[in-house]
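Sequence design from tokenized structure. All designs in this work follow the same two-part layout: the structure record, then the generated sequence. An example of the structure record is given first.
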């Protein structure tokens, strides 16, 4: 295992690798801001353009449908032009989307800007965790790969604060400032990303061993660790581990090649690759099927149903959601390499089942009382925050770490892209249907539905997601074949006894 290789303290976090992951996570802050700020901006957009609930749902969810397209494109793009330039591409797309939304003379133009930003979201969600995972050591990979999710939380909180600050402006200017200001960090990130190194794993996949070696020495704690990691990656790619040439021809069978890699992953996967695909897609499916986007995007509606009717107070209560999310994402980031992915997931889902059930009960009571039951109002807000807490201690950050680390190098960008596409599809489904579901079965009933889905998610994670803590990226296939191998060993032992 990597922790045993060289170095006085192989578990310490490499500062250069940490800096790379932090810069890559900046793109996630911009995405988080776009998500959070729309929660409050929708109140004023609806008021100015006089749009109904159906158009409001489309405005909220269209970003995620376009992100689905962006994530599928990002996988192939990052394999062709590299992880670094893919992050820069995402920044420029965000820049264009923010300018269009800030301009927003009509609902149609605003929708187009939201679509453009959505494509950038797809790129950002796929590439930031993959890049962070590929520059990290196994001992710190969970922490560094969680940073994009921390970035999303910071962005959502900044979006909520922006809602509060700009809500005092005139109707025409306020929401446009909220949406358009994201263009500024997008521009700076697109320029700053040029100072980042490329992923050493991507360089080796392209045969650029010499360039990869220079970067690997920077992102490792000592030469022994760097050499060990390089040998593992060379072996995985099909290069002689003792090869010292700067440029090497990579076998065609190992390269990521268009249609062939799609077929190999989706139509003819090996048993271990099929299990990895099910785990990677499943965790992304359940992240949003359990209802977090309903709380993030429509928290002002939830608080309105609970009895908080003033817009300013709704936005202020929503800031509390952002603070809770940020606090527990940071805590999870510190725990993920110590406690492990699996324990955090199971703890998270158990808490989500309890809090979603509680939220369903208290919202139902508050709604039926017309907001007169103060204790039901208070408990609705508390269980909302508690749900956000449990989600962000496990399922939120672990989803991105897990899906970025389990796929073999050849399939990593594509597999992560498919996972993000499913993630965005479910996000769009929830964000574009929550108001309609609430109208049909009440807001409380919608959260009972999410509680039931969370029970299914808990069962799925228990049986299908093995622990990956401390394993190198090149060991992941072995982790997902261990069960099969142990069954074979047990059968051989029984035969031996006979």
């Amino acid at each position: 295992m990597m922790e045993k290789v060289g170095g006085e303290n192989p578990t310490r976090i490499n500062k250069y690798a940490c800096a790379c992951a932090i810069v890559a996570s900046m793109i996630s802050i911009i995405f988080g801001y776009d998500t959070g700020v729309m929660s409050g901006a929708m109140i004023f957009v609806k008021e100015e353009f006089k749009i109904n609930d159906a158009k409001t749902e489309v405005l909220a969810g269209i970003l995620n449908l376009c992100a689905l397209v962006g994530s599928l494109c990002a996988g192939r793009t990052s394999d062709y032009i590299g992880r670094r330039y893919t992050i820069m591409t995402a920044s420029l797309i965000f820049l264009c989307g923010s300018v269009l939304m800030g301009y927003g003379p009509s609902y149609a133009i605003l929708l187009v800007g939201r679509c453009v930003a959505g494509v950038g979201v797809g790129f950002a969600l796929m590439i930031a965790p993959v890049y962070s995972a590929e520059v990290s050591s196994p001992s710190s990979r969970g922490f560094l790969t969680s940073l994009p999710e921390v970035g999303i939380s910071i962005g959502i909180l900044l979006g909520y604060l922006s809602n509060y600050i700009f809500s005092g402006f005139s109707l025409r200017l306020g929401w446009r400032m909220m949406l358009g200001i994201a263009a500024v960090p997008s521009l700076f990130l697109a320029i700053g990303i040029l100072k980042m190194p490329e992923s050493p794993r991507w360089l080796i996949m392209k045969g650029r061993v010499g360039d990869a070696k220079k970067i690997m020495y920077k992102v490792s704690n000592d030469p022994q660790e760097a050499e060990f990691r390089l040998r593992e990656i060379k072996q995985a790619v099909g290069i002689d581990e003792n090869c010292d040439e700067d440029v090497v021809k990579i076998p065609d069978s190992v390269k990521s090649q268009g249609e062939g890699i799609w077929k190999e992953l989706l139509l003819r996967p090996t048993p271990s690759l099929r299990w990895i695909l099910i785990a990677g897609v499943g965790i992304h499916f359940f992240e949003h099927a359990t209802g977090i986007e309903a709380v993030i995007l429509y928290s002002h509606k939830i608080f309105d149903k609970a009895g908080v009717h003033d817009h300013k107070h709704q936005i202020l209560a929503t800031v509390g959601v952002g603070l809770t999310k940020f606090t527990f994402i940071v805590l999870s980031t510190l725990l993920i390499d110590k406690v492990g992915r699996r324990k955090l997931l199971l703890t998270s889902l158990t808490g989500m089942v309890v809090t979603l059930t509680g939220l369903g009960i208290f919202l139902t009571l508050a709604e039926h009382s017309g907001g007169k039951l103060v204790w039901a109002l208070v408990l609705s807000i508390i269980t909302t925050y508690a749900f956000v807490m449990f989600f962000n201690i496990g399922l939120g950050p672990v989803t991105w770490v897990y899906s970025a680390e389990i796929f073999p190098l050849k399939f990593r960008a594509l597999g992560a892209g498919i996972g993000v596409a499913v993630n965005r599809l479910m996000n769009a489904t929830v964000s574009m249907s929550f108001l309609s579901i609430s109208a049909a079965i009440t807001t409380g009933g919608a959260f009972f539905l999410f509680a039931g889905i969370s029970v299914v998610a808990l069962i799925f994670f228990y049986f299908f997601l093995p622990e990956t803590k401390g394993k190198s990226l090149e060991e992941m296939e072995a982790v997902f074949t261990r069960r099969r191998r142990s069954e074979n060993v047990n059968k051989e032992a029984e035969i031996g006894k006979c």
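The chain has a mean pLDDT of 85. We note this feature because it recurs in several other targets discussed in the main text.
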